[in-house]
Specification:
Distance between the termini of chain B: 34 Å
CATH topology of the largest domain in chain B: Rossmann fold
Order of helices and strands of chain B: EHHEHHEHHEHHEHEHHEHEHH
Number of domains of chain A: 2
CATH superfamily of the largest domain in chain A: Alpha-helical ferredoxin
Strand content of chain A: under 5%
Structural class of chain B: alpha/beta
Helix content of chain A: 40-55%
CATH class of the largest domain in chain B: Alpha Beta
Oligomer: heterodimer
Radius of gyration of chain A: 20 Å
Distance between the termini of chain A: 40 Å
Number of strands of chain A: 0
Structural class of chain A: mainly alpha
CATH topology of the largest domain in chain A: Fumarate Reductase Iron-sulfur Protein, Chain B, domain 2
Largest sheet of chain A: none
Number of domains of chain B: 2
């Protein structure tokens, strides 16, 4: 947290403005204040394995309202990064990541119907994005190898699984 | 001749799921003296709720590559999606720090791209309101749209506010103004500022929570008795259109609120047909709204 420039979290007074502002916490067991407190207490495993960490919609309301000017949303995203490193990534989120690795789009054209729809609207069947430039996909894959994202999201392993 | 040129960032959802928004925007732009210059080989922004949640350095490196493509065009970015806007503008802010930029450019080195921080990203609303101006938009209106609208602004257009040009996070009325200048009436409604529930990886892994959030908004919008909902973010658009059908299925409700992206509405006012604006591609029928304004799909 300190390294990521999120040291203001130390000034949290547990007022609960974050939880009180949270549209997700209104309907789920996600308690922003509780997660922040647990993180400050160093309850690493408890925080990183908590599925509620993944109920934030990143709307940013808590960050705007925090009276201690803590960037709460960034802190949650940082905890999520650590949670992924600790191996608690959701299969759905791995799947989105695999699409990014394979195509350069997290939501790619994976069915002909989308190209057909584009043509009906007078657009090219493929957009001028990575979809039209194989070299660009290679560039994305290069970046992903460099940062180790493929390993983080279990890319090779799932490929093996696909084959068996 | 053309006064306003931008690098046009498409993202994922617009070109690959909601191309009607791309088509509508490409048609209305020339009327506003906007030239959309392609960002050849652009990728996912990448999505702030998912990829940034998984690994910030991967997120920032791919963002930097997209920003570099715009920089190679020598043009600021015009972006239609609040999520992409959030990513790109956060990328610009993060990469202002010389050490971070050096570190990320090192990762990018093998791609042949480098980002030097000479361009920024602007959301459609910023381009329309600040660069083009209300008067110039009004001049393109041939067919004023006289109907009642609820506006959904969306979170990442406004927040985090410290790296946004608006200076406010609630009671944001610029989209209302853009709708009113083409003849519409906008209404205030309960929970107008609330999140649609699509972001943060909720739609992909916590669909029920995500739908419960949009259900709450749909109920509030229904009570406001409007002809349609207008949005300025394709991911919110997807959540209100596809998500509305899913809400009806999941919760046994029967919401039938037509959903339009702003450039689709502007196109109708500029004299384009509903078909040209792709209004026949929506999941929740837009027909009742069109009927109200004397048109049909």
């Amino acid at each position: 947290m300190m390294k990521a420039g999120l040291d203001r979290i130390r000034s949290c007074i547990q007022c609960g403005t974050c939880t009180g502002s949270c549209p997700s916490g209104r309907r789920t067991a996600y308690r922003t204040r509780q997660l922040i407190r647990k993180a400050l207490l160093g309850l690493r495993e408890e925080v990183l394995s908590d599925p509620n960490l993944w109920l934030c919609s990143t709307c940013g309301t808590c960050t705007e309202r925090c009276p201690r000017k803590i960037d709460v949303t960034e802190a949650i995203l940082y905890l999520r990064n650590l949670s992924c490193q600790a191996g608690y990534m959701r299969p759905e989120h791995q799947s989105v990541s695999h699409k990014l690795i394979e195509t350069g789009h997290a939501v790619p054209i994976d069915d002909e119907k989308w190209s057909k729809m584009r043509e009906e609207l007078g657009l090219s069947p493929l957009p001028p994005t990575v979809h039209s430039y194989p070299k660009a996909v290679k560039e994305i894959q290069y970046i992903i190898k460099k940062t180790g994202f493929d390993k983080l999201v279990n890319y090779k392993e799932s490929k093996k699984d696909d084959k068996t | 001749m053309t006064k306003h040129r931008y690098s046009f960032f498409l993202g994922c959802v617009i070109p690959n799921r909601l191309p009607q928004i791309e088509a509508a925007t490409r048609l209305v732009a020339p009327k506003l003296d906007i030239e959309l210059v392609e960002m050849k080989g652009a990728s996912c922004c990448p999505a702030p709720g998912v990829i940034k949640s998984f690994d910030k350095d991967t997120w920032l490196s791919i963002t930097a590559r997209n920003l570099a493509l715009a920089e190679e065009n020598g043009l600021d970015i015009l972006v239609l999606c609040n999520g992409c806007y959030g990513t790109l503008i956060a990328g610009v802010a993060d990469l202002k720090d010389p050490e971070t930029r050096k570190r990320i450019n090192k990762i990018l080195k093998g791609t042949g791209h480098q980002f030097n921080g000479t361009i920024t990203a602007k959301h459609l609303v910023e381009v329309l309101y600040n660069d083009i101006g209300k008067e110039a938009i009004e001049e393109t209106v041939e067919n004023p749209i006289n109907a009642r609208f609820a506006i959904h602004v969306g979170c990442h257009l406004l927040k985090p506010s410290d790296i946004r040009p608006w200076g406010l996070v609630e009671d944001f009325m610029l989209v209302d103004e853009l709708v009113e200048l083409i003849g519409g009436t906008t209404v205030d409604y309960k929970l107008k500022d609330m999140c649609c529930g699509a972001g943060g990886g909720l739609r992909s892994a916590e669909l029920e929570v995500s739908l419960d959030m949009v259900r709450e908004k749909l109920e509030a919008i229904k009570q406001a008795n409007v002809d349609a909902l207008v949005n300025v973010c394709n991911f919110c658009h997807l959540q209100f259109d596809l998500g509305q059908m899913q809400v009806n299925k999941h919760f046994g409700t029967d919401y039938q609120i037509p959903v339009l992206y702003y450039t689709q509405l502007l196109g109708l006012a500029q004299g384009f047909t509903p078909k040209q604006m792709g209004l026949d591609k929506h999941i929740i029928s837009v027909a009742p709204f069109l009927e109200k304004i004397g048109m049909s799909v």
